[in-house]
Amino acid sequence: MASEQYLDDLTVGLRFGSRRLVMDSSAIKRFAAEFDPQPFHLDEQAAQGTLFRGLAASGWHTAALTMRLLVESEFRPAGGIVGAGLEELQWPRPTRSGDELYVETEVLEVRPSKSRPAQGIVKVRVTTFNQMQEVLQMYVGNLVVQRRPS
Q1: How far apart are CA 28 and CA 64, in angstroms?
Q2: Taking burial as the number of CB atoms within 10 A of a residue's CB, which of 27, 53, 69, 81 is the most buried?
Q3: Which residues belong to any copy of the MaoC-like domain (predicted)?
Q4: DSSP per residue, 66-134
Q5: pLDDT band at 69; cut points 50, 70, 90
Q6: How many domains is the chain built from?
Q7: Could you tell me the residue range of the domain that residue 108 belongs to?
Q8: Comparing C-alpha atoms, which of 69, 61, 77 is closest to residue 6?
Q9: Cα–Cα distance, 139 to 128 (Å, whole number)
């Protein structure tokens, strides 16, 4: 499915993949310096003595890269990726320098809107993996998706 998908095109169980993106330590530190300046995101030495036992990307950095990969993925909902809220967000494993991130999106639910017939809500699970197929981030979110024009 290369073109955009309308609410009417989406069914429970559909899956969409993304390209891969490699994380590096300089990107981890740049993001952290601006948005999450904690030692385990900024300094390899300091990070050794923490829960992470080494430099780890901020979860918000992983979330931002997930969004980038999602927007560029095979999943192209009509009207764009418009979030209506998250039900769940998890970071079961830290993102490290050298990790090769990719995203898989699975459609969990499709609901036409009763009050706005031109759109509906699609519940998706978006999972970010590394090169070893380990889950780095997972969220369940609700997206507003346009219906096919009549």
Answers
A1: 12
A2: 69
A3: 22-128
A4: HHHHHHTSS--BTT--EEEEEEEEE--S---TT-EEEEEEEEEEEEE-SS-TTEEEEEEEEEEE-TT--
A5: very high
A6: 1
A7: 7-146
A8: 77
A9: 9
Does 60 fall in a domain? yes
Average pLDDT, the chain: 96
Joined tokens for residue 108: 């969990």
User: What is the predicted pLDDT for the residue at 132?
Assistant: 98
Extract the tokens encoding 134: 């380990």
> CA-CA distance, 72 to 41, in Å (whole number)?
26
Cβ-count burial 103-114 (b if 16+ within 10 Å, e if not): bbbbbbebeeee
Q: Please give the C-alpha separations between residue 80 and each of 125, 142, 143, in angstroms, as whole numbers.
A: 17, 13, 9
pLDDT class of 83 with cuts at 50, 70, 90: very high
Query: Which residues on neighbouring strands pair with residue 21, listed in sequence order?
Result: 101
Question: What CATH number is attached to the domain comprising 103?
Answer: 3.10.129.10
